Predict the 3D structure of the following.
Amino acid sequence: MIRTLLLTLLCCIGAVSSSTSLDLQKKYTVAFAQDTLENDFRLNQVKMVRHALSKYPNIRFVYSNAKASTSLQIKQIEDFIYQNVDLLITSPYNEFATTDVVAKAYRSGIPVIMVDRTVQGNEYTTYIHPDNKQIARDAAEFLAKQLDYKGRVLLLKGVPSADSTRKRTEGFYEIMRRYPNIEVIEYIANYLRRDALIGVDTLLQNNEHFDAIMSQSDSMLIGARLALKAHHIDPKSLITVGIDYIKAAQYAIRSGDQTSSFVYALGAQESADIAIQILSGNEVPKEIIIDTLQVTKENVDAVKPIF
């Protein structure tokens, strides 16, 4: 099962919270360089960080929207470095291309919180994330069992350049390689429901058949369901697993249109809490792994969606 390090996180935060001494007379600027605001997860991530920091009137929160463009995100981080912000939060669109500019911010003395995604190397202050690879392993094992270890699976992949996509893909195949009677086909849908709708529609028009869908986000699974229904295929007839556990996934699991989802926390509250610790001059862990939970029809009413 997925490592439970949430308690460790809470202990770390608790251990330093008593010594928190944010200078209320000083003005701070916290910047969030987000990869896109077109994705519901990314948009809510920014909104919830802003909300969490809003109780500190001396903190100015600013953010940027890279619109799924690596070059634009790099430029926006450069701009925040030039502005000499007091702390930078980012979720990189490209784990390789963004490495140098993140390192530049870190070397210039700006603390950097990597939330959900990271870059190569370790030139940042802290990395807050759920365990993408283990989530994918658990999802794949569940999917294989539901299929009785035979059949055809459509893997809907997220942004190819993001480390979260790479880790979810690696973890998924680590398990699927054990089952030679399961065939996997792929489609890149960039974590967007529109791209998933178009992709699944195209596959179905080309007479592709699959018994299950493993979607690296619930948003893509929404698009997949729309395509299935347009082709008069009942989503209930497939095994479908997503990641994030948003409200739409909760409704779909309740109705039977989705088999399962895995809670993937936004990391927003954690990022805000750690930002306050950093601005207060406290040491923070280099890596913080947030716990997750699988949701099925059995526990769907007991688990709150992330948004």
User: Anything to note?
Assistant: DSSP finds ten helices and twelve strands in the chain. The two ends are 24 Å apart (CA to CA). The chain has a mean pLDDT of 94. Residues 6-129+266-290 form a domain with the Rossmann fold fold (CATH 3.40.50.2300).
